[in-house]
Amino acid sequence: MGQKVHPLGFRVGITQPHLSQWYASKRYYSQYVLEDNFIRTILLKKYKRANFSKIHISRKTDDHFEIVIHAQNLGILIGTKSEKSEKSEKSEKFKLFQKQIKEFIFHYRQSEWNSKLRVVLHIFRCKTSASSIADFIVEHLERRVPYKVVFNLLKKHLQRQERQERQEHFDSALGIGMKIQISGRLNGAEIARQASIREGRLPLQTLQAHIDYHFQQAYTMYGILGVKVWVLKNVTTKTYKI
Question: Ranges for the Small ribosomal subunit protein uS3 C-terminal domain (predicted)?
Fold first, then answer.
C-alpha cells in the first residue's frame, strides 16, 4: 500500500505557515484548537459564496484575536466598493462582519457580550487557488454535469480568470502545474473509479515546492464524489519559522 502524506502538513515551516499561531498551556490548548476550528467552520458555512482560500488566526491573549482572511468574492464580506482591508475598515459592512465574528465567539463560549474582546480583522482578495477550483468542480458535479464536461468548463474558466488577473497585475492563475482527481461513482456508474487530469509539473516530494492543496466532497444523487486539487505555485527557498 502506498504511504500518502498531506502536502500541506508535509511543508509546514518550509513553504507553508501555521494557520493558527498562539501559545497556550495544557489547560487551554484543546479549548483554543476547538475554538479556531469552530470559527473557520461557521465562516465557511455562513459565507460559502465568498470562496475562502485561507483563514489565519493568531492570538496575543485569550480576548485578543487577529484574523487574516483570503477570499475571492470580497463583496459578500465587506461590500463591492473596496477590495482591500485598509480601504474597507470604515465601511459599514466591514464593521458588521467584524461584529458577527465576535458574536460567533461569544456563542461558542456561551458567555455574554464582553467589551474586552478585541478582533483585529484583515481581508485580502486572493488569486485563483486550489479551494476555488474545487468549489467550481463541486458546484457543477452537484448539478449533474458529466465530469468530462466539467474538466472542459474548468479550462475555459481558468483561462478567463488568467486574463482577468493579468489585467489586474496578478500572476498567472494556473501556476506552474496542476492536478485534479475525482473519485466515486462517476456519471452514476455502479462501480466507483477515479478520473484525473494533469498539466505542467507537480513535484510532490520537493519540500521547496509551494503546493496549494484542497479536498472537497460533492453530494450527488448517486453518491458522494471526492475532489482533490493540487496546484504548484512556485519553487522557493523561503522558509517560515515554526
Answer: 138-231
Q: How far is CA 136 from CA 54, 155, 158, 174, in A?
A: 17, 11, 10, 14
Estimate to the nearest angstrom the gap between the alpha carbon of 199 and the chain centroid.
21
pLDDT of amino acid 17: 85
Give domain 130-235's CATH number out of 3.30.70.890, 3.30.1140.32, 3.10.450.70, 3.30.450.40.
Answer: 3.30.1140.32
CB 114 within 8 A of CB 48: no
**Count of residues making up the chain:** 242
Q: What is the pTM of this model?
A: 0.80
Residue 35 near residue 104, CB atoms below 8 Å: no
